[in-house]
Amino acid sequence: MKNCNQCGKCCIKYGDGDIAATQEEIDIWEIFNPEIFEYVKNNQIWFDPQTGANLTRCPFLEVEPNVDPSAQLKYTCSIYLDRPEDCRHYPSLIAEMIRDECEMIEVIDLGNHHKAQVKLDFLMRDSRPPSGH
């Protein structure tokens, strides 16, 4: 298992409304982070503040400037410390990483899902509770 290389696949795949924010997160944004809260509509995320239309991509996903045009794009989250819990917990399962073509997973991980899950849980220990698998 490799560390995250910031490929952005997870944010691109799930940033169009396939993730949710808790009511507590939404309430905190409303009070302390109105620049995030403006993208909330009817307690759902991410909506265009002007039109109210559901966005097809997280508005806080940014591409890092790249000096080498042949290098892979790297993505960052402009609300990383205030991102929804759904974002904090991803990836949670090896099967989910395989399905999503996560670039953290290595060929050796495919041969022993249990061992790979233990390593993933260790890597993600500061972001989420262990998977329990």
Structural class based on helices, strands and sheet pairing: mainly alpha
Helix-strand pattern: HHHEEEEHHHH
Query: Percentage of helical residues?
Result: 25-40%
- Using only CA atoms, what is the Rg? 16 Å
The major sheet is characterized as:
2 strands, antiparallel
Give me the number of helical elements: 7
- What's the rounded overall pLDDT mean? 91
Total domains: 1
Spatial gap, N to C terminus: 17 Å
Question: Largest sheet, order of strands side by side?
Answer: 1-2
- Tell me the fraction of residues in β-strands, as a range: 5-15%
Shape, per Cα inertia axes: globular
Strands, total number: 4
The poorly predicted ranges are: none
Explained architecture:
The chain has 133 residues and is mainly alpha-helical. The protein has one domain (9-123). Helices cover 35% and strands 8% of the residues. It is built from seven helices and four strands, in the order αααββββαααα. The strands form two sheets. The protein has a two-stranded antiparallel ribbon. Strands 3-4 form a two-stranded antiparallel ribbon. A hairpin with a 2-residue loop joins β1 (40-41) and β2 (44-45). The longest helix has 11 residues, at 113-123. The chain is globular. The two termini are 17 Å apart. The model has no long low-confidence stretch (mean pLDDT 91).
Quick description:
The chain is mostly helical. It has helices at 9-14, 23-32, 34-37, 85-89, 94-99, 107-111, 113-123; strands at 40-41, 44-45, 61-63, 75-77.
